[in-house]
Specification:
Elements lengths: L5 E5 L6 H9 L6 E6 L7 E5 L5 E6 L8 E5 L5 E7 L3 E5 L5 E7 L12 E5 L19 E6 L4 H10 L6 E6 L22 H5 L3 E5 L6 H13 L5 E4 L9 H17 L4
Parallel strand pairs: 1-2, 2-4, 3-5, 4-6, 5-7, 6-8, 8-9, 9-10, 10-11, 11-12, 12-13
Helix pairs in contact: 4-5
């Protein structure tokens, strides 16, 4: 398949590790690869070595004990999307990455991530997504973080401290079926000093599904608005208030007044 540029492997069955390598080695011009896997016991290491590959999407909820992980060697890769990945090992060589989306991943540690310009994180905060110690996201200008559970505050702090050129920050709250659901007992570790990106680069701040009732979210919003000295645009959106919920409307107005006062300087 010397002319093939796009390949989608959706719940395919592989004889062994070598069968994957043989298949991909026969596609020397491959530019886009999609891999979706579920329960499959014949592969130990899923190796993807494609020098021409530019776009790669992988969704894997395989929980078989025999499967160890992925070895990805794609020096031309520009766009990477990873979801539902729970394997013990994940090796990535893709130093030219521009945009990455990571969702529900248990272990992605790679220096390749520090080259990205756009990064979307939709991960459990108990999982490890941080690059090795000392790595800085010098190229990152767009960051989007989903906030599905307690602990995302610390992930936000870590990313702000390690993304000195960040220009756009977007937070996306969790949609809750029970609107009165709250998580207690989690404290936010603020940055020890104001991150460089807030002092000189951040221009746009968006918070979708903002919860006006949660003090921790108000604390985060207040900190960002007070310290983002170059901020030009800030947008907060939330769910509608049903008729008869005047207490929520009053709470929202109080919070809006607080946040508005913090934002007067930008």
């Amino acid at each position: 398949m010397k002319s093939l540029k796009t390949l989608h492997l959706i719940h395919a069955f592989y004889t062994n590790d070598e069968s994957i390598c043989n298949l991909l080695s026969g596609c020397p011009r491959l530019e886009e690869l999609v891999v979706e896997r579920t329960c499959e016991y014949s592969v130990k290491f899923f190796t993807i070595k494609v020098p021409s590959l530019q776009r790669f999407r992988i969704y894997d909820d395989n929980d078989e004990d025999e499967f160890v992980g992925y070895v990805i060697d794609t020096p031309s890769l520009k766009y990477l999307e990873i979801g539902y990945l729970g394997c013990p090992q994940f090796s990535l060589n893709a130093l030219g990455l521009l945009a990455v989306y990571i969702a529900r991943v248990s272990n992605v540690i790679s220096e390749s991530l520090v080259s990205v310009r756009r990064l979307v994180l939709n991960v459990s905060t108990s999982m490890t997504i941080y690059p090795p110690t000392g790595c800085i996201f010098y190229q990152l200008v767009y960051l989007q973080i989903y906030t599905p559970e307690p602990g995302w505050y610390d992930l936000l702090t870590w990313m702000l401290e390690h993304s000195p050129k960040l220009q756009v920050l977007k937070l996306v709250g969790k949609y809750r079926i029970k609107p009165d659901y709250h998580v207690l007992g989690w404290e936010w570790n603020k940055p020890k000093s104001v991150p460089e990106c807030l002092l000189s680069h951040l221009e746009t701040f968006v918070w979708r599904r903002y919860d006006w009732k949660r003090e921790k979210e108000e604390e985060v919003a207040t900190y960002l608005l007070k310290n983002a000295r170059g901020l030009k645009n800030a947008t907060f959106s939330t769910g509608p208030i049903e008729p008869g919920q005047l207490d929520k409307l009053k709470q929202r107005r109080r919070t809006r007044k607080k946040i508005g006062w913090c934002a007067q300087g930008f």
